[in-house]
Amino acid sequence: MLKNPADRRTVLWVLLAPLFVGLQYANPAWVPYLSPVSCYFALACGVIAHNHNHHQTFRDKSANRWFSIWLSLFYGYPTFAWVPTHNLNHHRYVNREGDATITWRFTNRHNALVAVTYFFVSSYYQSKPINDYIANAKAKNPALYRQILLQYACWIGAYVAMFSLAVVLHGWGQGLYVWGLSVGLPAFFALWTIMLFNYDQHVHTNPFSEYDHSRSFTSTAVNYLLFNNGYHLAHHDNPGVHWTKLEALHNEVADKIHPSLKQKSLAWYWFKQYALAPFFPSLGTVQLGPGPMNPPERELVASLQPDPAE
């Protein structure tokens, strides 16, 4: 039933996610300890949703549709949204003009404030391709439109049902506490962190370069926990390839990638960039190439213009 046997772990992770939520519902005393675990599994479900939208997990179409709905409950948003914002938009423009997820919309500075607020800015601008996709499906593809409505209905319905269950089991105050930290916070954490990953994988890279358009993180632990999401250049160059093949594809071109775009440790990269670089600027990233605001063709046109000083 699975297209790739390695996705046994994918399915296992998706089944573990509700187990930890259930434990917190059963005993609120475990919430402070298990909420971070639920945050991780929600994030993992977001990465799995990303992989699933590029390379369907099951051979059966119906199984894939229900798997998408199930992932939505933990990721924090209906997973169909990956298609218009990521598959059809981000992969087409790759942080160039037209990309709804560009890292340089209001500034090309790379600091903690821009990184932390990127989620809110990017979410706003991603709403247009999502709404356009829904409108197009409603007008031209009724079957797809029904699937979108079903995802929304299941997503909203599940959150209402889980909140109601928490209140019934524990009362209003503690029920809100249990639901908020076991369901609500992990969902927000997953959405916010997925966007932070996108930001760090593209900020100050060269979107016009064959090998320097993405930043990759090669930590074995990170790539195990996040299903090879760190090998971002390889993913962009081979979006339909199963996640298990990305490490090998990265290694094939690793010697052609700018050294600053091959980061071993994600945690050390974040610490350098957001804690140390404000005091020691040489530890921060620098823009590679002409920068996304100055495409090569624009620079060429500018170079051909007469110098007004002459």
Folded structure, characterized:
This protein is mostly helical and 310 residues long. It is built from eleven helices and two strands, in the order ααααααβαααβαα. The chain has helices at 7-26, 31-54, 61-75, 82-93, 112-140, 142-202, 220-225, 232-237, 246-253, 266-276, 296-304, and strands spanning 216-217, 262-263. The chain has a two-stranded parallel sheet with strand order 1-2. α1 (7-26) packs antiparallel against α2, α1 (7-26) crosses α6 (142-202) and α3 (61-75) packs across α6. It starts with 6 loop residues before the first helix and ends in a 6-residue tail after the last helix.
Provide a compact summary of the structure.
The protein is mainly alpha-helical and 310 residues long.
